[in-house]
Design brief:
The protein is mostly helical and about 120 residues long. The chain has 4 helices and no strands. The two termini are about 30 Å apart.
Length: about 120
């Protein structure tokens, strides 16, 4: 059940990234905007109970779906989804290392997700 909620969250952000892809095709720079959307998506997924493994699985399936029917018709979307997945992985890595360091320091304080 939660997986369906997480997929809806990601689908909403994918639509926003698709719109950014259209802007990119017109020559606008959208890299920072895509990263901001990914960060917001991760925060929303985390708030709804998603764990890093869940987030990785959903973002991984996104890239697989993007490869299937549309790489020829929407190559820019495929590139943006690949970049979004890489940025999500980077943010998850940073968050996990931050929590690991906090635990090893003995502080164990939670500073919130995805700084």
């Amino acid at each position: 059940m939660l997986e369906a909620v997480w997929e809806k969250i990601v689908d909403r952000y994918v639509q926003e990234i698709r719109a950014l892809g259209n802007k990119a095709e017109q020559g606008e720079l959208v890299g920072d905007l895509v990263r901001k959307k990914v960060r917001k998506c991760l925060i929303e997924m985390h708030a709804s109970g998603a764990e890093p493994e869940d987030i990785r699985a959903i973002f991984g399936s996104l890239e697989i779906q993007a490869r299937a029917p549309c790489p020829v018709s929407e190559p820019r979307l495929f590139q943006l989804l690949t970049a979004a997945r890489a940025h999500a992985e980077f943010l998850l890595f940073i968050e996990e290392n931050r929590k690991s360091c906090a635990r090893s320091d003995g502080k164990g304080e939670d500073l919130g997700p995805f700084h």
